[in-house]
Amino acid sequence: MARDTGFPDADAENDFSRQRRRAELARLAAWFTRQPADVNTVLPFDEVVAALGRTGETALGLVVVKVSTIVGSVDRTRDFDRLFRPTSARVRARWQRLAAAQRRGEAMPPIVLYRIGDMHFVVDGHHRVSIAIARHIETIDAYVTEIHTRISPEGIHGVSDLALKDHRRLFLSRVPLRGKQAEAITVTDPFDYAELAENVEAWGFRLSQEVGEFLGRDEVARRWFGEEFLPVVRMARRAEISPEATDAELYMWLACERYRLVRRHVWDESIIDELRTAAPRRRP
What is the pLDDT of residue 77? Predict the structure, then answer.
């Protein structure tokens, strides 16, 4: 960490220039190492909420927040990178003015944040967050509103993760599993959620035809999980088929291969044995 000169304006100018260099070096390093394009991008609040599904909010009032948990913004995603380093000189004047004021001991008002899970998104106070990071300040006072979402935000590290969350949210709207049942359904390819939803809906249609009555989505989801998904996955795990796949990926592959090989929508140990020895056209 560079030593201060004792002159607030000069030190603020040095802080800004140092953070701009770091932002450019990080961008170049990401390019040279072929990292994902969004690795240094501030998470956009609106896109995160759209992917997760907003269900409500709670005002938490004034709280102390760890600066390291502030990873996104409501409307300033172009001015700062993921670590809130300035991405251009256009924010220099205000940044240095606030930084110098802080160094002179002037009080700063709390920032305003949205909270989603363990992540925080800046509504007001982008420059103050950037300055706190530049000066290695670990906590900051903030007025926080917690946003409640349809699905968990766990696992979001960049914009590229939002597609998976968005498709998972849509899957759970079509197949309304809840609690541990919902947690048990995970895939790594976002579009697998759409394929699985189609599979469950087709299974539900066949079940409705069999029982002679219309079954709603909640009933189909509950019965599919208990009568179809769990028994199939348990048989496949005992047979040690594709242990590297998630349970949902394994089920989808088995369902596809079963119909291709035997043309029947039934399960038993003999079918599992046949699938285990078959040369699959698609691995989960």
Answer: 76
Is 215 within 8 Å of 208 (Cβ atoms)? yes
Torsion, CA 166, CA 171, CA 172, CA 173, rounded to 10: 90
Q: Which residue has the higher pLDDT, 246 or 281?
A: 246
State residue 282's pLDDT score: 44
Chain mean position to CA 11: 37
pTM assigned to the model = 0.77
Closest to 45 (Cα-Cα) out of 33, 34, 63, 57: 57
Residue 268: band (very low, low, confident or very high) from pLDDT cuts 50, 70, 90? low
Q: 18: Cβ–Cβ under 8 A, 6 or more apart, which residues?
A: 2, 134
* pLDDT digits 0-9 by tens, 49-98: 999 999 999 999 999 999 999 999 998 778 898 889 998 888 999 999 99
Is residue 151 within 8 A of residue 53, CB to CB? The reply is: yes
